[in-house]
Design a protein that fits this description.
With about 110 residues, the protein is α+β, with helices and mostly antiparallel strands. The protein has a domain of about 60 residues. Helix content is about 25%, strand content about 15%. The N and C termini lie far apart (about 90 Å).
């Protein structure tokens, strides 16, 4: 029966040092670069439109595709649920109707 001394040197119990740059760090860097590329560099400074949403502002400021008209939608209105806010098109969130009107937006008809 072999003794522990007969094992090859690669089976020793000596702990190896971990490399400085691991594959996990590499994958994390790739994912982070993709997130920043998708959301843009504004993710660090959170644009005002997203900051208002995070603060609980519920009025959606939408830009009409056909006419470019700026319309705001209140909770409970007909198309409020279907309206999506895309800050890259100039759309944003408002905290009050007065704020939306002061910015030059009009109330949705229904």
């Amino acid at each position: 029966m072999p003794t522990h001394r007969s094992f090859l040197p690669r089976y020793t119990t000596r702990k190896r040092s971990r490399p400085r740059f691991t594959m996990e760090a590499f994958y994390l860097a790739i994912i982070a670069a993709g997130v920043v590329g998708y959301f843009g560099a504004e993710i660090a400074g959170m644009p005002a439109a997203l900051a208002n949403f995070a603060g609980g502002c519920k009025i959606k400021g939408n830009v009409s595709i056909g006419s470019g008209e700026r319309i705001y939608h209140l909770p409970g209105q007909e198309y409020y649920g279907e309206t999506r806010i895309s800050p890259q098109y100039g759309e944003r969130w408002f905290c009050s109707e007065a704020e939306a009107r002061a910015a030059g937006w009009r109330r949705a008809g229904r």
